[in-house]
Amino acid sequence: MSVAPRITSRSARLAVVACGAAALTLGVADTALACNISEFSAEASCSGEQGVITVVDKDASGTPATVSVFLSTDGSEKLIGTQDVTGTREGATVTFKENWQPNATYRVHVKAGNQVDEDIKPNVTAPGKACATTPEKPAPSTSAPAPSKPAPSKPAPSKSAPAAPAPSNSASPAGGSDLAETGASSNTPIIAGIAALLVAAGAGVVFALRRKTSR
Known about the structure:
- The protein is of the alpha+beta class and 215 residues long.
- It has a domain at 37-125: Immunoglobulin-like.
- Helices cover 30% and strands 27% of the residues.
- It is built from three helices and eight strands, in the order αββββββββαα.
- A hairpin with a 2-residue loop joins strand 3 (64-73) and strand 4.
């Protein structure tokens, strides 16, 4: 048997081994770069006084993914939000604002092309203590204020003239208002004196006539 066929057969076997190794290497590399649900994680936490649910994507292949968060309560679900994320080896983060209640449960679903379409396991459970939240200020009322009650008005002072005093039955003093009303003047005492003299003179005449008659 010649040396040349042996060398050719040996080279063929080496080539097959090299191709197999290359295929295995490419397969491992492709698997390593494939997006996988294990590269996603989620948790509920507090950012200051705000509750949040954070999802981290450490997909080194950079496959675009869509993350959806659902609140699970008594068998029913409520969509909290949906965001897109492109993973990195260090980890890309998306945050959902959610004022979660203590021990609330959330389902986080990931859809990345044709490679991933499933939930992050296990579901996210919120801590047993809620974040401290600042109470909201009440919104200003747009309704018109109630009209205030008018203050009781003071009674207006009466403008009618005061009632005239009742006439007095008592005698007015001499020289008072009665004399003025009858037209009396300062000559009245003189006239009264003259009248008295005349009366006295008349009485004297009558007395003298009676004496003469008696004689």
